[in-house]
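Input/output pair, single chain:
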Amino acid sequence: MQDWPKIVAVVDDEPSMLEGIERLLNAHGLVTQVFTSAEEFLIGNASAEASCLILDINLRGMSGIELSRRLKASGSQMPIIFITAADDETTRREAMKAGCVTYLLKPFPAHLLIDAICKATGKAVDGSTRQAP
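Output:
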């Protein structure tokens, strides 16, 4: 059995992307909590339970960057994997400043997301602890 993180939270306002990520992670044995907005994520208090957060940058309402700033200001150390379909240098720079572990462009290959979760949580797919290169 894999020694995966307990819960991976996913915030994306695109239903098909949210469903696809949830299916992928569930197929790999991960428990997911999905949210369609940053505000829903905050109300759900998922940051207390999640081992990492997959976060779309361009959300309706509060952006993913703003959510990550709020989490950081509240003392959260939850690793964040940013995903986006709208890539530019400014967005990438803001994501890095906000402390993302990985920055993925939609659409991305499934293995890149799984690798990012491994990197964010320090767990390898086989359940062993991942060592930094």
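Residues 39 and 45 are 10 Å apart (CA to CA). Helices lie at 15-27, 38-43, 64-73, 89-97, 110-121.
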